[in-house]
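Structure (tokenized):
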């Protein structure tokens, strides 16, 4: 049996996933990280994006959207603490596309600095959610 690492993905509302994986991929602030069993301890901030779990043994990858948060890595445990975490299969594409359009409209208008910054964050989050939806589609 291949070595595995225990993964917990937790949002402010609930536990989203708890189980074993062969590899974990996460959107760290400085770039995507890949975590295998016996990885060196690490704590880093996450940016909005996709967490991918390779379950190994021919099983399908699992995809999750996180709005940001903290990634803690220990040799046999990975914990993702996210403000918002959603299974990619549960994302509503129509709602994401609408949020993206609203953010783009705000960015092209004459918005105040605060609205502009908020719109940039919303656009970035919508793009990350759409990438997760697209991966699920390609996998099916």
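Design, position by position:
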């Amino acid at each position: 049996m291949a070595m595995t690492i225990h993964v917990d993905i937790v949002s402010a509302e609930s536990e989203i996933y708890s189980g074993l994986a062969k590899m974990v991929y996460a959107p760290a602030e400085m770039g995507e990280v890949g975590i295998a069993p016996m990885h060196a301890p690490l704590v880093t901030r996450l940016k909005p994006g996709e967490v991918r779990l390779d379950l190994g043994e021919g099983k399908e990858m699992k995809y999750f959207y996180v709005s940001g948060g903290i990634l803690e890595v220990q040799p046999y445990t990975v914990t993702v603490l996210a403000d918002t975490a959603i299974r990619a299969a549960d994302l509503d594409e129509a709602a994401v596309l609408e949020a993206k359009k609203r953010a783009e409209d705000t960015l092209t208008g004459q918005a105040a600095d605060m609205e502009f910054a908020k719109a940039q964050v919303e656009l970035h989050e919508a793009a990350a959610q759409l990438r997760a939806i697209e991966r699920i589609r390609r996998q099916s």
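Reviewer-requested clarification: Residues 7 and 84 are 17 Å apart (CA to CA). Residues 113-139 form the longest helix (27 residues).
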